[in-house]
Structure formats: C-alpha cells, structure tokens
Amino acid sequence: MKLQFLLTFFVFHLAAAASMKPQSAPVIKTQDGIGLRYNQTGPKNGQQLLFVPGWRQAAVEWRKQVEYFSQVGFRVTTFDMRGHGDSDKPDFGYRVSRFAADLNDVLTQLDLRDVTIIGHSMGSSLSWAWWDQYPDSHRRVAKFVFVDQSAVIVKNPHWTDAQAAEVSAIFGPGPIYDIAADLANQLEPLVRSMFTPSVSEADFEWVLDQNKKMSDANAAALFVDHSFRDWRDVLPRITVPALVLSGELSVFPHAGIAWIATQIPGAKSYTFTAAEKGSHFVFWENPERFNEVVYDFVKR
Ligand SMILES: *[C@@H]1O[C@H](CO)[C@@H](O)[C@H](O)[C@H]1NC(C)=O
C-alpha cells in the first residue's frame, strides 16, 4: 500500500516536471549524424530569412530580429550550430568547412528558397565557405547580409601595417593561439569587447551564458580554424546582391569591413555610427536601426 502510494506520488511528479519543460526546438540531422536545433517563425509563405550566429553564439540571441521580421510577414529560420546553444555537442567537426556543410544541410533539408542569409561575424565566414563549396545550392539564395566580419582575421607577418589595416586583419598569429589556450579567462573580456559600454549587466551576463553553452575546448578549436581562413578570393565570385554592415565602435575597424563591399560585384555597405551604438553586437544593442537597415535592403 505504502509502496503504491510512493509510486503514484513519483509518477505524478515526473509527469508534472515533464509538462513544465519548455518545448524544445525541432531538429535536423547533418550528414555526419549531428542534431541541430532550429526554429521557424512567421507565415509559412513569407519571404525567407535565415540568421546565422557568430562564433560561440546561440540562435536565441537573434530574438529581437525573429520577433520583428516574423511580425512584418517574413518566414524566419534560426539554428544552433554544432557544439553551440541547444544543438548536439560532438567532440569533432569544429572547423569552418564542416560548419559550411552543416549550413548546406539546413538549407536543403528545410528546403529554403529565395532566402536571404544574414550572417553575423563567423556566420559571414560560414556563408563565404558555403558559397565556395556548394555551387549547386547557390540557386536557393536571393541575397546576403554580412554583419561585421573581416575577410581575413590574422595579419600575415609579411604584410605591412597598411596591408593589414586595409582588410581589418586585427590579430597576429600568436595571439590567436594565446586566446585559444586561455579561453576560460579570455571569454569574458572578449565578449565584453563586442558591446558598447552601455550594455546592461543583465544582458551581458545572459549573452555570456549563451557562450558558455559551448565548451572551451570546442570553441578554441573553432576559433583557431575560423581565424586563419582567408575569404578574399571568394568575394568577387558572389553573384547575388550583398549588404556589408560594420560599426564605428566595433572591434573590427569599419574601413576594413566596408572594403568587402568593394570586392563583391554590386555590393553595398553601411556603417552604424557611434550614436547608433555601432558595436559588433549592434543587432542586439540597437535592434530598431539594425532591423530597419536590413529590411530596406531585403525589400529593395
Ligand atoms: C527556439 O525558440 C525557443 C523558444 O523561444 C528558444 O528557447 C530556443 O533557444 C530557440 N532555438 C533556436 C535554435 O532558435
């Protein structure tokens, strides 16, 4: 009798706990068997947008864009990259080429068409890698928005300072390995440098928590691979309209980001000013202006 009571009690609480769990996002499986969580919001027949996060960032950080664009009629897709957010976290595949393959799996399995891909930071690099590696999928993409990512991060020691500045190559090779080896301590100042000083502590802590969903080891492997890629030869081969966004307060000096638009045929660039809170995370710090600029480009 007593046992039966205990069992009933236990089952009841288990059921209550299960029903309280937030609905988890649906999953696609990559070609190497990794589960990636994604969300689709807004009318099914709406114009397609796909937001790709930056290194170590979670899809949920796009929520101010998801809310706005789905409300004005777009079909908005977000996904957590491998090792990031709520997606599977295998101990392999932390290189941009693999992430571009994952991006292609998202595009093809969700059958996205006429989609505008908005890539933040490393999300832009994934878009360049994907364009380079998957010509058969080019027809799916209508436009690109590249948000604050230089075409080369590492300054070749054989370059002059002017050569490095032209493309905003902001790190020497050594510092990349130094940051990667000490991510437990480097993460917080790194994330801090991506915002303006006016970011609230609550927002900063929340973004830091999203970053910590990825292990330091996986993040370090991806950071090194991402940093040493050079996308300059891909840019002139992009054949869809592109908008390149930079910020006066970004860690990447804006002239070297705007340079990208001079390399892509017909591309436009826009620099968010200091008054517009033009940081690396401008989409979070000034969503009204960011959404307006992206809207105008996508609707044009
Ligand atoms: C999907 O939406 C839920 C609820 O807002 C959120 O918790 C989750 O992080 C989102 N996942 C992705 C991949 O966008």
TrEMBL record:
Residues 1-17 form the signal peptide. Residues 49-287 form the AB hydrolase-1 domain. GO terms for molecular function: hydrolase activity. GO terms for cellular component: membrane. The keyword Protein biosynthesis does not apply. The keyword Ribosomal protein does not apply. InterPro entries: AB_hydrolase_1, AB_hydrolase_fold, AB_hydrolase_sf, Epox_hydrolase-like. Keywords: Hydrolase, Signal. This is AB hydrolase superfamily protein YdjP. It comes from Echria macrotheca.
